[in-house]
Amino acid sequence: MAALQSGLTPAVLKKYKFVFLGDIAVGKTSIINQFMYGTFDQTHQATIGIDFLSKTMYLDDRTIRLQLWDTAGQERFRSLIPNYIRDCSVAIIVFDISQRSSFNSLEKWVQDVRNERGGDVVIMVAGNKIDLVEKRTVSPEDCEAKARELNVQYMEVSAKTGANIKQLFKALAQELPLAQETSLANPPESSTGRVKLSEQPQPQQKTKEGKCC
After folding, report:
1. Distance, C-alpha 183 to centroid of its chain
2. How much helix, strand and coil, in percent to the nearest 5, is found in the chain?
3. pLDDT (tens digit per residue) in 85-136
4. What are the φ and ψ backbone dihedral angles of 58, each rounded to 5 degrees?
5. Which residues span the domain enclosing 89?
6. What digits encode the pLDDT tens for the residues 169-196?
7. Which of these, 74, 107, 78, 76, lies nearest to 93 by C-alpha position?
8. Overall domain count for the chain
């Protein structure tokens, strides 16, 4: 408020759209919740439609706003998800290291992203649930080889323990392309919302904002 009263230019943040993709029950929502709140819900239900959250991230040289879009993994929503990929800066494709079928789906998810964004997007594959060591069905070597084959970044994480979650977002922040700037005279405190998938997805959500160090 003081800046406005003194005639100073309001703070300007760059905003980046992160879209989380992947099969059902791979842990997309849990990764977001661990990053946003540092929590893990063992009883979390499958996402229906699209969940939207935003967070301010403080880096060494700048402050940015992340818009996190959590998509449903059910097959019935697949035809609608490209609408949400179309203007994203980053696509995080999540699979479950204990479910080989979700690993086998990576190629089609990567193709979906490239069909919409071409090379103008950062793609990160996240192998989730590394805490399930004894149930692992996809080896680290297989994961790294697939990432090289698809020409994408790769990181292993655990939404349950928080392992590598902050590192995941930090690594992505360092790779972010230029994005649209938004002027925030008085940025709100936190942001959550839910958007139902439709043939013409024009989300209308309440906007609040969370902050992260």
Report:
1. 23
2. 30, 25, 45
3. 999 999 999 999 999 999 999 999 999 999 999 999 999 999 999 999 999 9
4. -100, 115
5. 10-191
6. 999 998 885 444 433 333 333 455 544 4
7. 107
8. 1
Domain-located, residue 84: yes
3-state secondary structure of 141: helix
Is there a contact between 54 and 65 (Cβ–Cβ < 8 Å)? yes
Whether residue 63 lies inside any domain: the answer is yes
The pTM assigned to this predicted structure is 0.79
**CATH (domain of 140):** 3.40.50.300
Alpha-carbon span 132 to 136, nearest angstrom:
6
Burial class from Cβ neighbours inside 10 Å (0-12, 13-18, 19+) for residue 70 reads: buried
CB neighbours of residue 139 within 10 Å: 10
Domain presence at residue 203: no
